[in-house]
Amino acid sequence: MAAIDLVALEARRAVVKRSNWAGENPGVVLVFCIVFIVAVGIVALFVYRKCMARKAARQSYEVEQQ
């Protein structure tokens, strides 16, 4: 039984010893969030421009027949 208790104590120590990295570095997490939001905005802008270019190209080929 002593070996099981030793394993349980070691596991408990490992869990307690863990630290919250995000809690200790809120500035770094904020920078990551800002960079992510800017990157998503840039990607969305490129996708929007590509879609608008396709739409304009498609409209330029349409010809009305009378």
Q: Brief description of this entry?
A:
The chain is an all-alpha fold.
Write the topology of this structure:
Blueprint: H1 2-17, H2 21-24, H3 26-61
Describe the protein's architecture and organization:
The structure is a single chain. The protein is mostly helical. It has a domain of 36 residues. The protein contains 3 helices and no strands. The longest helix has 36 residues. The mean pLDDT is 86. Keywords: Membrane, Transmembrane, Transmembrane helix.
- What percent of residues adopt helix (DSSP H or I)? over 70%
The main sheet comes to: none
Strand content: under 5%
Instruction: Return residue spans where pLDDT drops below 50 for at least 5 consecutive residues.
Output: none
Count of helical segments? 3
Structural class: mainly alpha
Number of strands: 0
Q: How would you spell out the order of helices and strands?
A: HHH
Overall shape:
elongated
Distance between the termini: 93 Å
- Mean pLDDT rating: 86
Calculate Rg over CA atoms.
Answer: 28 Å
Properties at a glance:
mainly alpha; elongated; 85% helix; 66 residues
